[in-house]
Amino acid sequence: MSTSDQVINDTAFHPDAIDLSTKDFNAYVINHADDWPKWWDVSASLLFAFYDWLALVPTHLSFLFLISISGHCEMGAKEYRRLQDAGKTSWPAPAQLDYARNIYLPSRESKRDIRSRLVEPSNGIAKGVFLHMRVVLEVSEYWVPLNELGVRQDLLDRVAKATSLAMISVEYRLAPEHPFPAGPEDAYDVAEYLVNNSDSVYGGPLKFIGAESAGATLSVLAVSHLLATRPDFALAGTVLFYGLFNLSLAPSECGMNIPLVMTASDIDNFLDAYLPNTIATERRNPAISPIYHEIFRCPNVASLSTGTNDASGDQGRAAVQRGNLPPAMFIVGTLDCVVDDQILMSFKW
């Protein structure tokens, strides 16, 4: 019996392939899913926001207080970030590295810089730069990060030491305060700045772009942006952890009802904050959902639809850019809600 020339080892996604420590961690997250509030959930958010105060007053007064203010205020993303930074959610406070430092990179707006975090190799000598689109804790959701730059400093430090790369983690603007296109624009601005200045400022060229979650989405957008604006520049690679590349959503996101970090309801709320007043078809814009970018279309699809061989037009340009795509590593958990996105994007890449 013949087999397809494209084969996915599905045994890697079987429950038996999950190691014991990961199973234990998953069980903990699922069992404690109701312990932390959602930033858009009024009742749970209020309880969490007044947690310290409520612990000091009689139970019946606490209950009456919550009833009296219910429906009159919400926690919001900003307050949730403050609590998370203080370690007052179900996740520990982010670790801070004494030797990591803030840097400020230029944006397209003359009076606004983009704050980023720089973690250098321990010997201070960098062979190049890894551009990291900062992400939040694993409970983070899309484009509404719930903390500041400290969360992933431990990861940045390990990568810097192992690779001798300077790690630059970008604090792009966040929804709901700054919905689309603010986040991608910041990613583009920093990527272009590093292409032009990394050698002289940080001791080596921009070599890698990558991140986790929403940061992975922005990483792919930044890669495709550089292919168009800096065609002579070549990245060494990109590293993409559990990214969402189709913001109109795939089956694994729509059907996620296990409270393992994010459910379908969580995703809907975060995407509504990032892309307010949009419908699914509008979210398939390649500037929003990179999987719809022309470089990821099947070859000759334009010829099939128009009856022409557009070798010098859009199709020809896409073919050139596709040939310049850097090597990519896709990493996703067996039970991750974005598993469909990771598999499909890895196939298209």
Could you characterize the architecture of this molecule?
- This protein is of the alpha/beta class and 349 residues long.
- It is 38% helix and 12% strand.
- It has 13 helices and 7 strands.
- Strands 1-2-4-3-5-6-7 form a 7-stranded mixed sheet, with helices on both faces.
- Helix 8 links the parallel strand 5 and strand 6.
- The longest helix is centred in the middle third of the chain and has 21 residues.
- The radius of gyration is 22 Å and the shape is globular.
- The two termini are 28 Å apart.
- About 9% of the residues have low confidence.
Question: Which descriptors apply to this entry?
Answer:
single chain; 7-stranded mixed beta sheet; 349 residues; 13 helices; alpha/beta
Short structural summary:
By secondary structure, the protein is of the alpha/beta class.
How many helices? The count is: 13
Ranges where pLDDT stays below 50 over 5 or more residues in a row are: 59-73, 136-151
Largest sheet strand order: 1-2-4-3-5-6-7
Termini distance?
28 Å
**Average pLDDT value?**
82
Range of strand content: 5-15%
| Helix fraction bin | 25-40%
Shape: globular
Number of strands: 7
SSE arrangement:
Elements: H1 20-31, H2 42-49, H3 51-54, H4 59-69, H5 76-85, E1 101-106, E2 113-119, E3 128-133, H6 153-163, E4 165-170, H7 182-202, E5 206-212, H8 214-229, E6 237-241, H9 251-254, H10 264-274, H11 301-306, H12 314-323, E7 328-331, H13 339-348
Parallel strand pairs: 3-4, 3-5, 5-6, 6-7
Antiparallel strand pairs: 1-2, 2-4
Helix pairs in contact: 7-8
